[in-house]
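Notebook, p. 212. Picked up where the previous page left off. The plan for this session was modest: take the two constructs that came back from the sequencing core last week, fold each one, and keep the raw output in the notebook itself so nobody has to go hunting through shared drives later. Recording the first one now, exactly as returned: residue sequence, then the structure token string.
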Amino acid sequence: MGREDKFPVWEASLGAGVAAVFAAGLVGVYLSMPDSDYSFLKLPRNLEELQILTGHLENYTSDYTVQVLVGYCAVYIFMQTFMIPGTIFMSLLAGALFGQLRGVALVVFAASAGASSCYFLSKLIGKPLVFSLWPDKLTFFQKQVSKRREKLLNYILFLRVTPTLPNTFINLASPIVDVPYHTFLLGTLIGLIPAAYVTVRAGIALGELTSLSDLYDTQSMALLFLIGVVSVTPALLGKDEAPEKTPEIAVGTS
């Protein structure tokens, strides 16, 4: 195994730490909550289920704030790590329970932690899965990363703000095409803020939502587009630089 293929100890330690915090959080929340009927606790799949869940959790948030926060983060990180759809409902829930500022901070933290966990998991065992599910996207992504290596942070920011590539794919494919973790993390932390702001703001007025399409009005879409253009401009200005030779990715789990 070449040096570039080795999994650094500090990254392995961080990945193990995320998993340990996740497990400890779930156990802690379970043990510290009062005896009650928690049959309402399930992942919402539509706005109606989300509104029902919010109504129940509002009764616990003021008295058991820490437990609700830890439980929320644990579930969000789990969903991001294992590519379970529905995190948009979790973002709406943050707005409904915690308001604008705390809600945005909570969503950005949980989404970034989940994306990081997915990154490390993919670095360990994800290469065959990504090759199987998205061979064309992976080839495209690899070429773009190689071409924009000098301004890679701007490119990751652009991808996070715009729907150019799915976030799940970015999380899984980034370690495979050698996106450094610090670049991945910073781009994720900053790039998720605009979408988090939009969804959390909508969650504050959850009762007025009739469809997920109501989240993105003209003003919100214009803001996201503007941020995307600004973030990718430095990378586009440098596109005439001689690109690095794109390395071949070997299929395997090492």
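Okay, moving on. Second construct, recorded in the same format:
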Amino acid sequence: MGERRGSPWTDMVEAAFYLCAYEFAIKTVNSPWCRLFDEVDAQVMEYALDLKQFWKRAYGYEINSKSSCILFHDMFSRLDKALNEHNSGQKVTEAVTIQIGHAETLLPLLALLGFFKDSEPLTSINYASQTQRSFRTSRMLPYAANFILVLYDCGGGDIRLQPLVNEQPVAFPGVTDRQESMPLYGDVRRHYEELLKGCDFETVCELFKNPAEV
């Protein structure tokens, strides 16, 4: 489905907002472009950009996150391999795995895992009720955004997995009632059991899909 474009005026406003944001982020200067916007304008523009990413690469449609299924399986296969080697007394052959990608790679993966999912989907008519939303791409995907998984052996077979987004601990959604940031690895695998069985791409890639129920 092609990307929907706005009027020339809305495109110009978006371009001016990007110029303001980029110059501030890269040069740490208050760009003249920023003078075109007050705080409320900036919040509206932020929501507009979040709205775009929500429907294009995150929770808007199921196929968005399922595009990361192969990456998801690779991630858990590496964790399983390291754990099996550790439990068998072998030297872990891949103590650290680093994979480089783009925000367009990371966002669908975060959505597949259920991070930053609000109770209501972002739409063009519920801006006022979304001021406290978790889904904020400016915080989720800053420059050098990263997602880290760390396995811990706490002794006695107590193997735990800690997720971090941009070096900040987060909790796997729905894994525990207490929302621990370091749940048992077995609990995490059970939570994602259906995904770990494999992704049905024939079903996911149907041409006509209804917006995901959030």
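Notes on construct two before I forget. The two ends are 21 Å apart (CA to CA).
Flagging for discussion at group meeting.
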